[in-house]
Design goal:
281 residues; single chain; mainly alpha
Length: 281
């Protein structure tokens, strides 16, 4: 039987699920159209974790990580002989997700920064004898693996703690992204435009603290931390998108759409997770 907090997560998921039907019957175009689709995936994960199985939910998130990493590799100029290293990066996803599934925090925290890095670096040497460009290849592969697998993996670990912790993160990020969209932050980055969302995120952090299992003060602190983290994440990925020439509209899957819709979570997920882990568990 669902409790009140679980019911609200399900209602949010059903509301997001109704958007495509509303578009179809009304023929209206919605702002941030593709963004809603990826938001739907997050709440699919939360809903399944609440009503069915955390294990199934976490592997859905693994599929999203795989899609993001695959899109990133398709945009980066990597040598043919790096294919073994790329396969190693893909295999790091189930390795990390399994550690989350069995709640092995100590191994999870070093899974990508230590073991996956060492293995993918070694695999880059066995695909051929060409040595020129290997430093770039290792750095590019690890950069994508760290951001789109390891950082997003922390969101999955938050779901293990509490689906409302993860939901609070996502809802606050949505507020920041809507603020960014309204102020046209894609055109020109300024910290002020993203930080304008802080009063709302602080309120959400306080309002949801009880359901998320947080003392109200910590909910407020996390609410205040999220906008600057979103701003830092958006700025970092904006530079990466420019270098990878992800600048055309509309964005399509495989051409930067997944990266663009995940970019606001890459700093928030790990830092919020570690805040909760070190101060509240």
């Amino acid at each position: 039987m669902l409790n009140d907090s679980s019911t609200i997560i399900v209602i949010i998921f059903l509301g997001l699920s109704a958007v495509p039907l509303l578009k179809y019957f009304t023929r209206l175009r919605f702002p941030m159209d593709t963004y809603v689709s990826y938001l739907w995936i997050y709440f699919l994960v939360f809903t399944i974790a609440e009503v069915k199985s955390f294990t199934l939910a976490i592997w859905i998130l693994a599929a999203l990580c795989f899609a993001a990493l695959r899109e990133y590799f398709s945009l980066v100029d990597i040598r043919l002989q790096d294919r073994w290293s790329i396969w190693g990066a893909y295999l790091a996803i189930p390795f990390m997700i399994y550690l989350i599934q069995i709640d092995w925090y100590g191994m999870f925290i070093i899974s990508i920064p230590v073991y996956a890095f060492l293995v993918t670096a070694f695999l880059a040497t066995i695909g051929g004898d060409e040595r020129k460009g290997i430093v770039f290849s290792i750095g590019a592969i690890y950069f994508g693996l760290f951001l789109f697998v390891y950082c997003i993996g922390h969101l999955g670990y938050l779901v293990r703690y509490s689906t409302w912790l993860a939901s609070m993160l996502v809802l606050n990020v949505v507020v920041c992204d809507v603020s960014a969209y309204m102020f046209g932050i894609r055109k020109k980055f300024t910290w002020r435009k993203t930080l304008a969302a802080t009063p709302i995120t602080v309120f959400i952090g306080w309002a949801l603290s009880d359901w998320a299992g947080l003392p109200p003060l910590h909910g407020i602190i996390l609410g205040a931390l999220i906008p600057p983290l979103v701003a830092a994440s958006r700025r970092t990925i904006a530079f990466m998108e420019s270098d990878l020439r992800i600048d055309s509209e509309p964005l399509h899957p495989g051409k930067g759409q997944i990266i663009d819709n995940m970019k606001s979570y890459l700093y928030v997920a790990p830092i919020m997770f570690h805040y909760v882990h070190y101060f509240l568990t």
